[in-house]
Amino acid sequence: MASEILLNVKEEVTCPICLELLTEPLSLHCGHSFCQACITANHKKSMLYKEGERSCPVCRISYQPENIQPNRHVANIVEKLREVKLSPEEGQKVDHCARHGEKLLLFCQEDSKVICWLCERSQEHRGHHTFLMEEVAQEYHVKLQTALEMLRQKQQEAEKLEADIREEKASWKIQIDYDKTNVLADFEQLREILDREESNELQNLEKEEEDILKSLTKSETKMVQQTQYVRELISDLEHRLQGSMMDLLQVKRGKKPEH
């Protein structure tokens, strides 16, 4: 029961803009309260986009800056409520400004830095463009989500291109292997033809060599016989010339060699 009461109280003292417990609460004449940093940032945003019109972010009732009042009663309730832990989640650490101790709820565009409302009013950030951190975070989230989707699309395109290249490589390998097989088969066939031609030519040359050598051998034999016959005639004639007249007149008949 006490927990429900505390939850209800917490809901009443929660800033409608940042959805956190009110910090330096300011109340409008319509009765709604906001963190000082949140309503200030909202006021700047309204001045920028609505031609100077100021209205409550909850009920849209117009207000004047002089009608904004600090709400100490609500601030005291928030201070007491911070001392109570409604659940383990309530005790989680909240980021605060190291210099001022206030919640870091604003984002400085020029310095790309998260700051508190007191930092915004300091000389360091005076005149800079500041926005609610949640709005900037949401914008960054959208940009990062868009970038992520683009990268995923590029990744898909790259993976598809990679797959196409692998497929083309495989196709070319199959084609090259097929061409290699055909070339090897063609040259093997040519080698068989050349081997047969070589064998036939060698056989023809051997036959020609055999015939020529046989003919030359036969001619050589005849020439040897003729030479021997002539040698015998010469010897006989020399003998007759050196002999008597009787020997000179004797005719020696011998077998003439065949031509």
UniProtKB/TrEMBL annotation:
This protein's UniProt keywords: Acetylation, Antiviral defense, Autophagy, Coiled coil, Cytoplasm, Immunity, Innate immunity, Metal-binding, Nucleus, Phosphoprotein, Transferase, Ubl conjugation, Ubl conjugation pathway, Zinc, Zinc-finger
Domain RING-type per the UniProt entry, residue ranges: 15-60
GO molecular function: ubiquitin protein ligase activity; zinc ion binding
Catalytic reaction list: S-ubiquitinyl-[E2 ubiquitin-conjugating enzyme]-L-cysteine + [acceptor protein]-L-lysine = [E2 ubiquitin-conjugating enzyme]-L-cysteine + N(6)-ubiquitinyl-[acceptor protein]-L-lysine
GO cellular component annotations of the record: cytoplasm; nucleus
Record Gene3D superfamilies: Classic Zinc Finger, Zinc/RING finger domain, C3HC4 (zinc finger)
Domain of life: Eukaryota
GO biological process: autophagy; defense response to virus; innate immune response; protein ubiquitination
InterPro entries in the cross-refs: TRIM/RBCC, Znf-RING_euk, Znf_B-box, Znf_RING, Znf_RING/FYVE/PHD, Znf_RING_CS
Pathway assignment: Protein modification; protein ubiquitination
Coiled coil segments of this chain: 137-222
Name of the protein this chain belongs to: Tripartite motif-containing protein 5
Name of the encoding gene: TRIM5
